[in-house]
Design a protein that fits this description.
2 helices, mainly beta, Porin
Length: 304
């Protein structure tokens, strides 16, 4: 009988505190206040190059286009930024997010020049263009705004919340066309070379097909010759109101560090006539541009 009593006492002294400690780990605390800041990435599962108002980026039948392969724009479109959050009550949290992302593609198309001399719809002359232009299309987007959410603590260090992100966004489309663009290897082909005793070896500096005294005159008059580059660039942009309802999961890994992920739907619209040129002049006949896609936001934060 005495042995049994001792065993029962040992069980109470060991097992019961462990059980109480385990409950303290797995059940949420009565109240919680905290916050954190960190690096955040947003993934928008939409190819922005294939937006309904960007058809001119590709080839549209007989209509002039840039000929970009629109599938090469980033999908998902990644926005890198920073995020912060703080509890204002036990269950209500507010925060903020700001980030920017860019995707671009380049192409050097094979161009054939065609001419319909008699206007009968048949191309009479076809000639390959020896120096095709370099084309670059770049899409940029920045988002900033505030978040608000309601928390559902599950265990200590693990919680689920529902909320929404409200803010302002800006979408920019940059198109660059250049002819005679430089290449890396051509940067290291000097017109003249400085040798021993200060002698300068002059090549065909004036590009007339002959190496003679006129090349010396050309170097003396121009010093360092330059390469002319003809280019054109357009950069319209549109501002829009952005909303992103989401469900979030927050996991506290260490005392002052954790992970957070949100899954939601991002929506924004640039209305007709609200696109603007680079100098902020309105483009009154610009079409409506709709941004609708699933959005995932991941964050590593430092805080509680």
């Amino acid at each position: 009988m005495g042995t049994q009593i001792i065993k029962n006492l040992v069980f109470c002294l060991i097992i019961v505190p462990v059980s109480l400690g385990a409950q303290d780990d797995y059940y949420p605390p009565e109240s919680f206040y905290g916050g954190g800041v960190g690096f955040s990435q947003m993934f928008l599962f939409q190819n922005l190059g294939q937006l309904q108002s960007f058809e001119m980026l590709g080839s549209v039948g007989d209509t002039a286009g840039f000929g970009f392969d629109l599938t090469k724009f980033a999908n998902p479109f990644i926005i890198n930024g920073g995020e912060g959050f703080s509890n204002i009550t036990e269950r209500i949290r507010i925060g903020g997010y700001a980030g920017v992302g860019t995707s671009f593609i380049t192409v050097k198309p094979d161009i054939t020049l065609v001419l319909d001399e008699n206007g009968d719809g048949i191309y009479d002359i076809k000639e390959v263009f020896e120096k095709p232009p370099d084309l670059q299309g770049k899409i940029s987007m920045w988002l900033s705004g505030a978040t608000i959410e309601y928390l559902f603590p599950l265990f200590r260090g693990l919680e689920v919340s529902i909320g929404s992100f409200f803010g302002i966004g800006r979408l920019n489309l940059n198109l660059s066309q250049s002819a005679g663009s430089p290449s890396w290897k051509n940067q290291f082909n000097p017109v003249f070379q400085i040798g021993e005793n200060g002698y300068v070896l002059i090549k065909d500096a004036n590009a007339d097909g002959a190496i003679d005294s006129t090349d010396i005159d050309y170097v003396q008059q121009n010093q360092f010759p330059t390469i002319a580059i003809n280019s054109t660039m357009t950069s319209p942009s549109g501002t829009f109101f952005n909303v992103q309802p989401y469900i979030a999961v927050k996991l506290q890994l260490l005392d002052r560090m954790g992970l957070r992920m949100t899954v939601g739907f991002n929506a924004g619209t640039i209305n007709e006539g609200e696109w603007r040129t680079e100098d902020r002049k309105p483009i009154l006949d610009s079409p409506e541009t709709v941004l609708n896609s699933m959005a995932i936001r991941t964050m590593i934060y430092f805080g509680l």
